Amino acid sequence: MSRLDDVCRQVLAKVTPTREERDRVLRLAGEVIARVSEEAGKLGVKVKPMLVGSMAKDTWISGDQDVDVFMVFPQTYSFEEIGKLGLEIARRVTGGRGEEQYAEHPYLRAEVDGYMFDFVPCFEIEEAAQLRSSVDRTPLHTRYVLSRMDERLRGETRLLKAFMKGVGVYGAELKTGGFSGYLCELLTIKYGSFESVLTAAVSWGSQEVIDIERHYDDPEKARRMFNSPLIVVDPVDPRRNVAAAVTLQRLSEFRAAAMFFLEEPSESFFFPPKLSPLTVDELAAKMRERGTSMIFIEFGTPKLPPDNLWGQLTRSLQSIQKTLEGGGFRVISRDVWSSGEKTVFIFELESRRIPAAKRHLGPPPASPHQRRFIEKHLNAPSTLSGPRVEGDRWVVEVKRKYTEADTLLRDALKNPSGIGLGSYVAEKVSEGFSLYVDEEILSYYSRNREFQEHFTLTITGKPRWLTQRKEE
Amino acid sequence: MSRLDDVCRQVLAKVTPTREERDRVLRLAGEVIARVSEEAGKLGVKVKPMLVGSMAKDTWISGDQDVDVFMVFPQTYSFEEIGKLGLEIARRVTGGRGEEQYAEHPYLRAEVDGYMFDFVPCFEIEEAAQLRSSVDRTPLHTRYVLSRMDERLRGETRLLKAFMKGVGVYGAELKTGGFSGYLCELLTIKYGSFESVLTAAVSWGSQEVIDIERHYDDPEKARRMFNSPLIVVDPVDPRRNVAAAVTLQRLSEFRAAAMFFLEEPSESFFFPPKLSPLTVDELAAKMRERGTSMIFIEFGTPKLPPDNLWGQLTRSLQSIQKTLEGGGFRVISRDVWSSGEKTVFIFELESRRIPAAKRHLGPPPASPHQRRFIEKHLNAPSTLSGPRVEGDRWVVEVKRKYTEADTLLRDALKNPSGIGLGSYVAEKVSEGFSLYVDEEILSYYSRNREFQEHFTLTITGKPRWLTQRKEE
Known about the structure:
2 copies of one chain form a homodimer. Chain A is built from 18 helices and 15 strands.
């Protein structure tokens, strides 16, 4: 048996739910579904409750606690009605417990006997062309996967999911930008085994097109339609790219890890040991060694569904980078860390201070605009040198308003929506923010245990599966 | 009378040599030429001595002291012979005084009665096609200009020369990269007056072609032939661009000044008042205000003819800039100052210190080179962070060797030809150099009067004709 087979066998033993685990969750799901029917009946609502997702497809990984119960309504109901009725039924089932969430419809997320149940309303459709919201497709996905998978393929899917989790590319939410469970299932169906998926991924080209049901006669058409780093045409809906959420970053990481794993199979790709955070002294030494400047902006985390939150955070992070760069500061890297309470934007700058002198290009010599440019800048208080001719342009050196990045940020964040922060982030920043610069971040780091692991990864800057190879 | 006419009249009165001045130099030149004939006769050499250049063409500016006496040899002599014989005759005329210079032939430069005479050997040719070295053309130039100029045009030429001197674009030597006297004469012939030359220059396009004798039927052909910022086809030689020495910088400065002068005529364009150098305190304040870093490299000036010297200095300055930039330092501006004894390379840097961290791009993820890249950098002592995947490339941050510009320079200048300095400069630098950084340049500045005016212009960075407009 090859090393790879050996590793896979051991991993599979760990990630396959035991019969007891499986029986327990399926029995629980059955009971919950019966309760949904019962409560719907009492309300006189026609609805078919249905177990969907990885529990239904039996591709879940041992220890997963998420159960998706869809409430399938006939098309005779209105869009608003199924949201309202769905919530009402679900609340009755959970005895009023649970948290309301919002996607296209409102839905309920509630813990039942140690499992996290999502109660999601959707419309019954026969084919994707009829869909009214994207969740309507989910039952079709479940049906498709069930029809194409046997026991062996379920195991291969589990291996792929576990690998993706281990190397940090699993999850289609905006925060991760990785591979969804359905995408893992489709890849396994397409290539026939975990190992074959990895082998194929290593040789994927740019904008690889995977079109299992051959909805497109030419991959170029699919590329024009989707224009994503990876394109996996949904077998049940040609208008959808199942890999739409996958960023180039995660795709690249997955392919890099796949190649490495094939060359040198190891369980550590699946189960990376927990990273031990740098001590404060180690962090201080790292920062001295780098010689760069580090700035943290801390503020209260806006209360938003995760994807909305990460959309806002990403957009805001970009606006702040633009503000810094517009002021002449060079951003080496940026990062964001967000817990329920606090969010931290992290910027590493080439330097906290930059020179006051800034080149400002003027019109060509002897152009009609020459006189105005010279009259504006000659002997102006803001002029440091010039105006002078350089090659075929007038040039003047003017004084920058801000020569320190933190001063610029403090001023810019007084008007957070003015620099393009997302509105919810802007609101929170207006309520107050803290700025930590260089050595100040050390005390922040020492006070925030939760933050330490994240920042240790940021500053050492290695994928975790590489971090673990130290002593091999 | 317009303001412009008024200014021109006053300038003309100052720059036109008086009858006495003219008579004196022509008489002197006549005597010298007679002596050349006499000495040539004694040696049995057939040579026609001839007054050429601006004295012969009567386009010189009052106060000019340069007299060009060409010794025109028949083609029966060899290239080497006329060099040797020319020097021999000239030395006999000057009584052995004077300094040997080198262009295509050796020639003699000697003071006679307060004037600086150049005794230059050349071959007699009827037309440019026969020329054996570029000086052979000079008598043809003199003949051409004399045939095309009247008294009025001579005055217009003097105005143009004086204007170009005043705004710093006069002189075809490499150090200046500006307009030669012959070029001024041709421009005046072409446009008919000083004012018309300026007006035309303001509207010159990119690679303007001036072809007085219509040697080319299409300006595009001349552009393909010469490819310079300004193209003035030599009336006596279609293969020569009289403006070949004119850099884009000087051309732009001339055009900018021309436009300004036409809008606001003033004698100060012709006679810029002497700049008063900054005091040491003023310089220190300017440097603090700019917030940049300044580095001087001082070494002994190589003993070379000016054009060779400036070729070497320019090339060396560029190599040092490349060395700095290759090390990650950002050069804001560079400059060179050279006296007979000492030369100073001047670099203004965004910062003297840069962070140790340097991004190094690796292969794409999952490429065949991935493993070697990772094995090389993972846990290497030079690695600061990574390797990690960024988008579609592996990236690692490595430690720079030099984080201070002066340390880099001190090491690099130990092997001056290794970084591409011109060989004569490299030799001098090997004999020893001094490095002055930031506040150290203040004491250098205070000790070197000659240097102060140059550096004041550098740091205020305005054309001198703009400097003078302060209180208007």
